[in-house]
Amino acid sequence: MKFQYIRPRIKPIYPVYQLNDELFRIGAQLSITTEFEDPERKLFELVKLLDGRPITEIFKHMTESFPDLTEEDVLDGLDILSSENLIEETPDDNLEKIDERYYPNINYFSRYMTYDRNAIDIQKKISSSSILLLGLGGGGSNILTLLSGLGPKAIRIVDYDRVEKSNLGRQLLYKERDLGKLKVDVAVNALKEMNSTINVEGFNKKIESVEDILQFTDGIDLVICVIDEPPFQVQKTVNQAIIKAGLPCVFGASQVSRGRVFSVIPKVTGCFDCLNIHYTLHDDKFVEQFVGFRNIEFNPPTIAYAPAIFQLTAAIVDEAVRVLTGYAKPSSLSTQYEINYENGSSFTHPSWERYSDDCPTCGNGDSQKWEIFRYYENS
Predict the structure, then answer these.
(1) Which residue has better confidence, 298 or 11?
(2) Can you list the alpha helix ranges (DSSP code H) found in the chain?
(3) The whole model's pTM is what?
(4) How far apart are CA 202 and CA 185, in angstroms?
(5) Which residues of 212-226 are buried (b: 16+ CB within 10 A; e: fewer)?
(6) Could you read off the pLDDT of 35-73 as tens digits, one per residue?
(7) I need a labelling partner for 133 at 20 to 30 A (CA). Which of 4, 56, 209, 302 fits?
(8) Confidence band of 94 (pLDDT split at 50, 70, 90)
(9) Annotated domain spans of the chain
């Protein structure tokens, strides 16, 4: 199927160069470099014309330079390049309406765009979205910095803590002068300095109930949850809230030497309570482990190393953008995406389904049926 080309161009992120009289390449990065055998130099000539000029000019030049070619042949050549994801429609004047700070984002997204998609639209989607960020610790403080460079329309931040000296090794949003101050106040002021175009609100609030979250969800498009206390319970509470609000949520947490990310889209993916059911059905020691861990009331020392936290927070924000825009397929839908700090690798856990008949939160199930829910507070 041929696209309706208007002003096609080679994506500016790719170099075009000849190897010899018969071979040329587009791209110069391992795994995304395409090599073409072109002894008659027809395709290379076409590629040289793909600089944003109208398709009518391209037809005219190619059919005059190579009389054996028809316009249909030229379209076939364009489709070959399009199938390799190498060409795009030249952006119109709408690019001028986008803040120049986001041009590098657009260039990055263009790598993932097929011909019928526009990288500018991805940035526009981000810039029209509102995000609720829960938590301003090692995760949230660094996530906020990353979000400032993406430029959502609005960010609403919720946290109740104050800046302590032990935070400064990894929560690099905060400075020594901020010691003792409320994190939300520091974060709001810092974000305004980083990106004054974002509408930012901060709320000094400890999340303890579903209602504590729902009061902040009006007008929100996506939630990012990086609250880690109390473990498991807070994820369950946030999960209940985002299901009620109908909002997608990206959850992230750090362990000793690994970090995990999972995302929930209400009524589409399995939710956090579906994950509890999944483990109950597939791990005969799950409930015992949960109860055993809960009973010792383990209060670990802070385990955090800034380079590791940055690996995790980068993954969280990228997943959030993928969920919001679909620029690429998310890695954390109905699965836990795990980052190994020790060697930089990542992998996904076995996926879990949405238990619409059994889940008491996103489905029609009864929590009394499942032993695991007895051990959560407020279940």
Answers:
(1) 11
(2) 42-49, 55-65, 71-83, 103-110, 119-127, 138-150, 183-194, 210-214, 233-245, 272-282, 286-296, 306-325
(3) 0.94
(4) 7
(5) bbeebbeebbbbbbb
(6) 999 999 999 999 999 999 999 999 999 999 999 999 999
(7) 302
(8) low
(9) 8-89, 93-123, 128-375
The DSSP H or E segment spanning 327 is: none
CB 327 within 8 A of CB 321: yes
Q: Which amino acid is at 242?
A: I
- Position 43 scores a pLDDT of 98
Q: Quick one: 10 exposed, middle or buried, by C-beta within 10 A (0-12, 13-18, 19+)?
A: buried
52 vs 71: CA distance, rounded Å: 18
Question: Is 8-89 in CATH node 3.30.70?
Answer: no
For residue range 216-225, what is the model confidence (pLDDT) as tens digits? Answer: 999 999 999 9
Mean pLDDT of 7-24: 96
CA 149 vs CA 198, 214, 242, 311: distances in Å: 10, 27, 25, 17
Strand order in the sheet with 346-348: 199-204, 154-159, 130-134, 222-225, 249-254, 258-264, 337-340, 346-348
Mind giving me the DSSP string for 22-56? SEEEE--STTS-EEEE-TT-HHHHHHHHTBT--HH
Query: What band does 351 get if pLDDT is binned at 50, 70 and 90?
Result: very high
DSSP string, 139-188: HHHHHHHHHHHH--SEEEEEE--B--GGGTTT-TT--GGGTTSBHHHHHH
Q: Which fold has domain 128-375?
A: Rossmann fold (3.40.50)
Distance CA 110, CA 104 (A): 10
Q: What would the two tokens of residue 314 be? A: 């980068």
In the sheet that holds 23-26, the strands lie side by side as 16-18, 23-26, 34-37
Question: Does the pLDDT of residue 257 top 60, yes or no?
Answer: yes
Q: Which single residue is written with the structure tokens 């260039």?
A: 107
Structure tokens at 129: 């979205």
Question: pLDDT digits over 260-298, tens only?
Answer: 999 999 999 999 999 999 999 999 999 999 999 888 877
Stated as kind and residue range, the H or E segment containing 204 is: strand 199-204
Please say whether the beta carbons of 339 and 254 come within 8 A: no
